[in-house]
Amino acid sequence: MDGIVNETPAPRLLFLFDMDDVLVRYDWRVRMAALGEYTGHSFEELRRRWWDRGHESRAEAGHFADGDAYLAAFTEAMGCAVPEADWARIRGAAMTELPERVEAVRIASEHGRVGLLTNNGPLAGRWIGRWAPSLPPLFGDHLDTTSNFGARKPEPEVFVRALAHHGVPAARTFFADDMPVNVEAARGVGIHAVLVEEHTDLREAVLAFVAAQERVATA
User: Fold this and answer.
1) Sign of the four-CA dihedral 12, 25, 180, 125
2) What is the mean pLDDT of the chain?
3) pLDDT tens-place string over residues 79-117
4) What b/e sequence results for 135-157 when a residue is b if at least 16 CB atoms lie within 10 Å of its CB, and e otherwise?
5) C-alpha to C-alpha distance for 56 and 152, rounded to whole angstroms
6) Taking a C-beta distance cutoff of 8 angstroms, is the pair 95, 132 a contact?
7) Which residue among 16, 66, 91, 137 is buried most deeply as judged by most CB within 10 Å?
């Protein structure tokens, strides 16, 4: 967590959102096809060289000091030059913003602080704002990848560290993710967590949480 400092006052409510398949549609097949064409490797070979060896999971957990270190390791694993701009272009082309889900973030921002909590490494952290340009105006300085917290979902530590970073207790925190295991892990530390499926109206989920918190505050 040495790379992120939060000096702003703690909000009363905190809303944490996953990114892929929550705020954006992420088609990993598009990414892998483009990466395969770029490197000349088959899908199976791409997986063998990077993902199956656990490199991406380690990146998400903060193993690489920064985006440059990540890219150097990725390039070495691919066995060919992969400039940052091309890596980012390929990843970004697989992402499409989901306006109704982004609207849920806007609604949440009217009631507390919104923060991203996505299983991604430091290089992705550099580019999220350009991949999904609707997000920076809403999230401000809180477009965090799990690598910032030195752990990845569903490890409980990533949630505990995110709560400490924002200065908000679990009982006043909302979290949205598309992976049941991540939702259960968040609930395990006391966070109000919502599973986002294809037809989930995230706006309704946010407003329901706000209403419940208002009832608690006035009880």
Assistant:
1) negative
2) 96
3) 999 999 999 999 999 999 999 999 999 999 999 999 999
4) beebbeebbbbbbbbbbbbbbeb
5) 11
6) yes
7) 16
